[in-house]
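Quarterly update, task 2.4: heme C-bound model.
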Amino acid sequence: MKKLIIGGFCLILALVFGNAMIVSGQNDEEMSVPMGTIALEAPESVEASRPAVSFPHPTHFSFNCQTCHHQWELDEPIVSCTTSGCHDGTVAPTKSQKGAVDEETAIAYYKTAFHKMCIGCHKEMKIEKKKLEMSGLTLKEKLPNSGPTLCRGCHVPEE
Ligand code: HEC
Ligand code: HEC
Ligand code: HEC
């Protein structure tokens, strides 16, 4: 618990001062938290068919870090989503395989992982927003933003 509180305090300090160096856990490894937009692009071996995604990291800090960094246990630096053994699959399971592919194999494919998490949450937020709107309890201009769900909302074409 104490560790969590100290961790939380460091995090707040990091967020306030924007330098975002966090010393995590027992092994005192430093972790630098990207405080701007992260370019999420296809792995090198993939020929991308869509523009890379500009992901505004801090816009998402109202959520618990572990919502996305679900393997992070606070005691070591966060690793990239496409780290080997995580969502490092670069080839989509073929159509004929699809029914037979288990969830673990399916989510290892990086595109499935990103789409499931990013679009999944934005869709949920949209439903929540709709519920609020229908309830009539929140002024229209005070309704929360829900994040893009359309292809071009994330894969923004260059002008
Ligand atoms: C909505 C999802 C989401 C939330 C919430 C989130 N992050 Fe991230 N974060 C990402 C994504 C996506 C990346 C890019 C990962 C990659 O390049 O594979 C990232 C990257 C990072 C990295 C760099 C990892 C690397 O590859 O070196 C750090 C450190 C990090 N986040 C810390 C945090 C902390 C601390 C919080 C909580 C304040 C947080 N993140 C909240 C999605 C999120
Ligand atoms: C746990 C929920 C959640 C997850 C996961 C999530 N988002 Fe979001 N995202 C939101 C919400 C809520 C907003 C609206 C925030 C706001 O405008 O204040 C948003 C906004 C955005 C925006 C628009 C920002 C702007 O300035 O208009 C982009 C782009 C975006 N998200 C991309 C992503 C990508 C890419 C991922 C996956 C790596 C992702 N999001 C994962 C909840 C989420
Ligand atoms: C909420 C954000 C978000 C939305 C909405 C979204 N994507 Fe993605 N998509 C991503 C992220 C993040 C990646 C992984 C990074 C990358 O490869 O650009 C990705 C990867 C991809 C890839 C693999 C890489 C490539 O360029 O070939 C394709 C194809 C793709 N998306 C197509 C789509 C299509 C089609 C839609 C609409 C039906 C869509 N995406 C909607 C975030 C999104």
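Highlight for this quarter: Residues 40, 53, 55-56, 59-60, 63, 67-68, 114, 117-118, 121-122, 125, 145-148, 154 surround heme C (ligand 2) (CB under 6 Å).
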